[in-house]
Every structure is written in structure tokens, then in C-alpha cells.
Amino acid sequence: AVVNPYEACFGLAESAARSGVDIRTDCRVVSMGHSGDTWAIATSDGEVRARFVLNAAGVHAGAIAQMAGLDRYRVRARKGEEYLLDKRLRGLVSRIIYPCPSPTSKGTLVIPTYDGTIMIGPTADEVDDPEDVATTASGAARVIAAAKRLVPGISERDIIAEFAGVRAVLDDEDFRIGPTDAAGFFDVAGIQSPGLTAAPAIAVMVVGLLRAAGLELAPRPGGLAEVERPIHFAALPIIEQQRLAAADRRFGQIVCRCETVTEAEIHGAIERGAHTLDGLKFRTRAGMGRCQGGFCTSRCMELLARDLGVSLAQITKRGGGSWLVVEHGDSGAVAGGPAPLRDLGGAS
């Protein structure tokens, strides 16, 4: 089955937050120390104390392990480039097409996504910089050539977006899940594909490991907080769209024309934790169409600034230092930038 990875992850994050989990984003681990049965983790957002630490830091898992006094493994960064095709090709393929796998990956796939677009990729290139998420001309050429061998109707002219991610690869090419020599410190590292598919099973496994280590776990009264599915206006029948627009005029205001995303959906995403452009994009698809935000970016920024009560200069693309505009004559904003807003998983 093909799932919407954004909704799946945001749904889990929202449920966790509503159930009392403190989620901190734009929060870098600086150092950590262990005394007695307590870990003290110094972060850019203050100190956190805990009995148990789960090292699920991806390509930075090795660095986190070293902070904990462990030098157990080397994490390599393997970059994968993906390319998204125009929706005019919707229906060209109806199932994921796999080639014969290579020694380092499943190969270049042709993937009909949950939203109807087709994605092709990835590459599998080892890089020195774990933050290297740049796409390349050579990567694009390899992906297009491989995709055309599977589906000759695919053309490079249909590419509307390109992006890359970096996988965490251990020397043995396997997952590393379990306790370490440091008391209370657990590895959840080297999670390559199929990490998203395996995540629920990994979570169950880690809960069992923590329970075996002495962590008392009891079911939460009333269970986990339920999260209602957000409205996707474009996917609704016309009669339902008319009903919503009659009840709330914001459903009659289109912000993203390519994906038919309404002002009501933008407000709803902000209320649920989106504080960045990518936070809106991944929740609503605003900016994911043919023009890639050429028409709707300014309006999305205006709505973010208005709902959050901040200036446009404080709005970022994906948190951190990814500012989009600065105040006129504000040299300080250029040098250091305003304090970024925290987004509940908006940029992941």
C-alpha cells in the first residue's frame, strides 16, 4: 500500500504532543553527561534530564554516541536524489515499479505517490557532508535514464521538483537497535530503507527493551490522543466543497491554485503546529504544484505572519536559518536573523 508519509508522521507527532510529549524542534544537542542513573543533555534550548536516552539521530548518531562516551561505530552519509513529475502523468503507472536492486539500494524506482504525482529515484551516493541535500545534474541524468528504461513515456520535461535526503549507513549496512555499554543509552541507528515501513515495529521493539531495562510503563488512561484527519478540499466532491464554503467563507478563498488549497486549510495547518512554509506545504500541499509556490508563497507567508502574530522576516522555509525575507534596512537580520519559530515537525 502507498501511504502519505507526511500525514502519517504528523499524525503521530500530534498525537504524542496531545498526550503530553514535549517535542522540541530547532534544538541541537551540545553535550551530555551521566551521573548515577541520570543523563544530563545540554541543548541549544536548555538542559534535559532523563534516565534513558534513545539515540535516533540519523546521520548524526555517531556524533551523539561519542558525546555519550561511546566510540562504537562510524555512520556514513548516503545521499538519495528524487524527482517529482507533473500531475499530467497521473495514471501512467498504477503500481510501484522496482528494477533489479544494486549492492547499495533497491535501485531507481517509479513511484505513484499517495497524492497522484509520480516520483522517480533515488540515487545512492556516499557524501562527506551529512547535511549535503543538493541535487546534481549527474544525479538527474542517471535517474531519468533509469526511469525511462522502466517507463519510456517519462520525460525530463515533466520534472517539477527535485530534492534529496541523506540516509544513515553503518559499516555493516544493518539497523543497530539496542542497549549500549553506557547505562540507559540505547541505539536506534542506521535505519535505512525501509525505515518508514519498519518504524512501528521498531517502536514496539524499543518499548520492550526499555521495559526490560527497568522503565515502568503503564497504558495511558483513555489511550493515546486521537487526531482528526485534516480536510483536503481538492479531494472532496463538489457538493461537499460547496457545503464547506457556505459554512466557512475561507473554504471559498483559494490560496494555492495548482493544488486547490484553501485559506481554511492553511489556517487549520497553522493551528495544528505549522510555523514554516514547509510545514504548510507538507500538511496542505500548498506550493507542491506545477509552479512550485510561484503564486502562493507570498500569501502563505502573509497568513503565517498574521496567525502567529509575527513579522514576515520571522517566517522561514524550514526553520533554522532558512529566512526568506528581511526587514528593509535591518542589517542585523541579515547577519544573524530573527529568532526562528518552532514548528511541530513542520520541516521533517
Describe, in short, the structure shown.
By secondary structure, the chain is an alpha+beta fold. It has 9 helices and 13 strands. The protein folds into 3 domains: 20-74 and 173-212, FAD/NAD(P)-binding domain (3-Layer(bba) Sandwich); 76-170, D-Amino Acid Oxidase, subunit A, domain 2 (D-Amino Acid Oxidase, Chain A, domain 2, 2-Layer Sandwich); 233-335, Arc Repressor Mutant, subunit A.
Which architecture name of the largest domain does CATH use? Orthogonal Bundle
Low-confidence stretches are: none
Biggest β-sheet description: 5 strands, antiparallel
Decide which structural class fits the backbone.
Answer: alpha+beta
Q: How many whole angstroms does the radius of gyration measure?
A: 22 Å
Count of all domains = 3
By CATH, the topology of the largest domain is Arc Repressor Mutant, subunit A
CATH domain class name of the largest domain: Mainly Alpha
Helix percent reads 25-40%
**Total number of β-strand segments?**
13
